[in-house]
Specification:
The complex is a heterodimer of chains A (about 260) and B (about 190).
Chain A: H1 2-13, H2 17-25, H3 34-46, H4 55-70, H5 73-107, H6 112-124, H7 139-148, H8 150-155, H9 157-168, H10 172-175, H11 179-184, H12 186-191, H13 194-198, H14 201-205, H15 208-213, H16 220-232, H17 234-238, H18 245-254
Chain B: H1 6-15, H2 19-40, H3 45-56, H4 67-89, H5 98-101, H6 110-116, H7 120-130, H8 133-143, H9 149-155, H10 160-185
Helix pairs in contact in B: 1-2, 2-3, 2-4, 2-7, 3-4, 4-9, 7-8, 8-10, 9-10
Classes of the chains: A mainly alpha (about 260), B mainly alpha (about 190).
């Protein structure tokens, strides 16, 4: 670094280090060269009192400091982080419930009364869901188990993810009934049945906002479908520790 | 005057929110901080010092160290506040011609007149006028803050060597300028 070279030059040629320190400390040496004596006086003068310090100011500042200490970022951040956590849990629960419920409904694996209820309801909107008579046997118990295990529906996407893949291999009518798709673009879902199978379960239930934005789509329909899917998987709803209750609540009252 | 052995206790009480302890810290450290900020920003240095204390307050609980460390920590805050202020206002610092700030010395004994009646504010203005921003800051942190070379280096994000070089150059420059000014006034 060139600075250190400069430093050596300065020290050797000009002012000794100790003298610089003394000047900075405000030492006054009468035998100093006149230029340095002036520097010494200026630096000593700089240490003198500055008028204008008042006690009222001190009280104000200390009060403001106390206020700043009580309103720490920790207390300010807590509610927002908690809110964020609640939101995350709610979204996860909703996605899980819709995904698992939708897949179960598409596969016809819901309990008989619920499956027929979903079948009847969605058939009015033009969405084909297998009735209880059409339900293939292998998926019935499997999806019922998935929904029945409290922790599994929200925490094991692998299971629910496997089901859509299977439903993708199912007849088009069945796989097209994934709730997210049926809520957003019913026409498309019928045309591209394989999508529901390849789509992660979370995506199907994830965009409630999108379903609202879908042109020409009745706004209430997705919510109805969602709440009914919530109904269809009451156990998984309970496993979400109440986070999914706002959505599941209407369905429960219908029960 | 330093808090010395009391510093640890005062700091602990201040962390617990004691008004008395916060007041002690303020009384101990504010004069230097205020002087440092006033020297750089005569019109707003007072308010800026208060801002620094309020900004420091929530972080006092996180501070660990001794009295010197606290002083250096506080001045680092002060310096950054100052830089922020200058950045916002689009300037690096006040540029005040010396002749506007300093009374004209008497013709009878110019040197004595000029320096015997030099107030702290005028001395600060002299530093500010004759030195570069870095040189001025180094000297002010050393003189007003009482920081040593390492502490100034930490506060300014530079090396110790840089601080030593800068303060040497500052003193050289100051001595040259003051000497030549005396020659002119004589």
């Amino acid at each position: 670094m060139s600075h250190s070279d400069d430093f050596d030059d300065v020290i050797d040629a000009e002012i000794p280090d100790e003298l610089v320190e003394e000047l900075i400390r405000g030492a006054f040496e009468p035998e100093l060269p006149s230029e340095l004596m002036l520097v010494g006086r200026v630096l000593r003068a700089a240490r003198g009192p500055i008028p204008g310090e008042d006690r009222a100011r001190e009280a104000e500042v200390v009060e403001a400091m106390l206020a700043a200490m009580t309103v720490t970022p920790i207390t300010a951040a807590r509610p927002s982080s908690r809110r964020r956590r609640h939101l995350l849990v709610a979204v996860t629960a909703a996605v899980s419930v819709l995904g698992v419920g939708g897949v179960a409904a598409a596969a016809g694996g819901l309990p008989t009364p619920i499956q027929s209820f979903v079948h009847d309801s969605l058939s009015h909107v033009g969405v084909t869901v297998p009735s209880t008579e059409d339900t293939p046997e292998p998926f019935g118990p499997a999806t019922t188990d998935t929904g029945g295990a409290p922790g599994q529906s929200g925490t094991t996407p692998g299971q629910s993810g496997a089901t859509p893949g299977q439903s993708g291999s199912e007849p088009p009518g069945q796989s097209a009934t994934t709730p997210g798709q049926s809520a957003t673009t019913p026409g498309q879902s019928g045309a591209t049945p394989g999508q529901s199978g390849s789509e992660p379960p979370g995506q199907s239930g994830n965009p409630p906002g999108q379903s609202d934005d879908a042109p020409g789509q009745p706004h209430k329909e997705p919510d109805v479908a969602a709440s009914r899917h919530d109904d269809s998987v009451p156990e998984s709803n309970g496993s979400d520790n109440g986070a999914g209750q706002p959505e599941g609540a209407p369905g429960q009252s219908k029960k | 005057m330093a808090l010395g052995n009391d510093f640890e206790r005062v700091l602990a009480e201040a962390k617990a929110g004691s008004t008395v302890a916060l007041g002690e810290l303020y009384r101990e450290f504010n004069p230097g901080l205020r002087r440092f900020l006033l020297a750089r920003l005569p019109s707003e240095g007072e308010d800026l010092a208060a801002d620094v204390w309020v900004a420091v307050a929530p972080k006092i609980r996180e501070f660990t160290g001794d009295e010197r460390g606290f002083r250096a920590w506080l001045f680092t805050f002060g310096r950054r506040r100052l830089i922020d202020h200058f950045r916002r206002s689009g300037r690096r610092g006040p540029v005040v011609p010396l002749h506007e700030q300093q009374d004209q010395p008497s013709r009878d004994d110019p040197e004595a007149e000029a320096l015997a009646h030099l107030s702290a504010t005028e001395a600060a203005q002299l530093l500010l006028t004759h030195l570069s921003t870095d040189q001025c800051e180094v000297l002010m942190l050393r003189v007003y803050g009482g920081l040593d070379v390492s502490e100034v280096a930490a506060a300014m994000d530079h090396t110790d060597t840089w601080v030593r070089v800068t303060q040497h150059r500052a003193i050289q420059r100051l001595s040259r300028r003051l000497g030549s000014q005396m020659d002119v006034t004589q």
